[in-house]
């Protein structure tokens, strides 16, 4: 009888060790997958020539709008902010902007916790007005006459089509480059999720 109890005890001990190591293994696998996903996201943005990274505070700036008003990024704390770098000569920007208008701006423009600003690189007001007319967007687009704002976020010679999504605390949560449908859809979902929090 003692022998049977001893064997039962050993079996239970082995089973519990197996479960805990299996659970530990599952936990390690989950951490490993999360780590790989984070690494994939980081690798994806490395070729984008950004000078900023996801998780960092967004560099502050002042930007003049065509009507003369000034927007200071840090004054938008408490809002989810989307910055869209653009220019009238940029064909990819022109392709993306109507999607930003319909899928993001029209859905959230009346939400006091959301702000979207286009940032036009190195062009006068007249060119911004032409761009707005051509793309039919209604969200505000500010001036970056010397690419000073752009240079806070990306290398000076980097391509223009890019977006920066910033959370309510002022931290960067997403960086995009060019206009890829999958990435754009992910950006839309990210903005929706941030606005629900």
Characterization of the model:
Helices cover 48% and strands 18% of the residues. With 197 residues, the chain is α/β, with parallel strands linked by helices. It has a 5-stranded mixed beta sheet with strand order 5-4-3-6-7. It has a two-stranded antiparallel ribbon with strand order 1-2. β1 and β2 form a beta hairpin. The longest helix is centred in the N-terminal third of the chain and has 45 residues, at 2-46. The N and C termini lie far apart (60 Å). The model is unreliable at 2-43 (pLDDT under 50).
What's the overall geometry? globular
Number of helices: 5
What series of H and E elements makes up the topology?
A: HEEEHEHEHEEH
Low-pLDDT sequence parts: 2-43
Give the total of beta strands: 7
Straight-line distance between termini = 60 Å
């Amino acid at each position: 009888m003692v022998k049977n109890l001893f064997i039962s005890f050993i079996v239970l001990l082995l089973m519990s060790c197996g479960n805990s190591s299996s659970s530990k293994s599952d936990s390690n696998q989950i951490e490993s997958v999360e780590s790989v996903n984070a690494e994939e996201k980081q690798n994806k943005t490395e070729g984008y020539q950004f000078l900023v990274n996801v998780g960092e505070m967004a560099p502050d700036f002042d930007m003049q709008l065509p009507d003369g008003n000034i927007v200071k990024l840090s004054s938008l704390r408490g809002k989810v902010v989307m910055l869209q770098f653009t220019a009238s000569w940029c064909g990819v920007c022109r392709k993306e902007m109507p999607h930003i208008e319909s899928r993001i701006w029209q859905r959230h423009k009346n939400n006091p916790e959301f702000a979207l600003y286009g940032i036009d690189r190195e062009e006068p007001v007249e060119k911004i007005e032409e761009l707005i007319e051509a793309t039919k967007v209604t969200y505000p687009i500010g001036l970056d006459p010397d690419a000073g704002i752009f240079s806070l976020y990306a290398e000076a010679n980097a391509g223009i089509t890019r977006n920066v999504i910033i959370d309510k605390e002022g931290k960067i949560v997403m960086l995009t480059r060019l206009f890829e449908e999958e990435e754009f859809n992910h950006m839309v979902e990210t903005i929706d999720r941030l606005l629900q929090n």
